[in-house]
Structures are given as C-alpha cells and as structure tokens.
Design brief:
By secondary structure, the chain is α/β, with parallel strands linked by helices. The protein is 39% helix and 27% strand. It contains four helices and eight strands, in the order ββββαββαβαβα. The protein has helices at residues 29-40, 60-75, 87-95, 108-115, and strands at residues 2-3, 7-12, 15-20, 24-25, 47-51, 57-58, 79-83, 103-105. Strands 1-2-3-5-7-8 form a six-stranded mixed β-sheet, with helices on both faces. Strands 4-6 form a two-stranded parallel ribbon. It is globular, with a radius of gyration of 12 Å. It starts with a strand and ends with a helix.
Length: 116
C-alpha cells in the first residue's frame, strides 16, 4: 500500500485501487495525483480503479488529468474506471460529455470487475 497526502493506493487482485484523499482535484492537486498513480500503475498492468468517494469537485485541470491518465492506461494495455461519484460530480462528467470517454460505475466491486 502506498499513501501520500493526496492519494491512498493499494493493489488488490492485480488492480490498483487509488483513492484521492482530497475533496477537490484542481490545478494544484491533479498533476501530483496523476504522477502518483502513474508511478504505481505499472505494478498493476495499468488496471486502475479510482474511488472518488471523498471528491466533491473536479476542476478543468483535474478533468484533463483524468483523461490523460485514461489514455495512459489504454496505451499500456490497461483500463481506468472511476467509481463512487456523488450525483453532482456525475453531472459534471455528463455536462462535459466525459462520461462517454471515462468509464463511471457506482461501486468499487463493479469497477474492479470492469477493469478485469
């Protein structure tokens, strides 16, 4: 298990479970979290689940970091799945049409199954 002040990470069943420990993923937080996750992702063959339970706001820089992380996962033969988004956060992804680019599911279990 790896932990920083931004992201709590562990590998379970070959899948990296990353939990942002901040309510906001903005211009300051997004490059740090992205780098932390990219540092651990190869150990899980780029199969990454992001538990978004603590996150209440994702700024444009955060959305960009998630799209970039998704591309990195795909490029390396893996997958990124987000779970645990509250209704307001889901609305942001739908408004920006990113729900078509990023896979969003309700539970961690469903996310782990989706990256499988």
């Amino acid at each position: 298990m790896s932990q920083s002040s931004f992201t709590n990470m562990k590998i379970v069943g070959g899948v990296l479970i990353a939990r942002p420990e901040r309510e906001k993923i903005g211009e300051y937080e997004s490059p740090i979290m992205k780098a932390e996750i990219e540092g651990e992702a190869p150990a899980a063959k780029w199969k990454v689940v992001m538990e978004m339970h603590s996150v209440r706001m994702v700024a444009s820089a955060g959305l960009g970091a998630l799209v970039s992380l998704n591309q990195g996962c795909k490029k390396n033969g893996g997958k990124l799945v987000l779970c645990g988004l509250d209704e307001n956060l889901k609305a942001v992804f739908e408004l920006t049409k990113l729900h078509r680019v990023l896979m969003l599911v309700d539970t961690t279990e469903a996310a782990v199954k989706a990256v499988g």
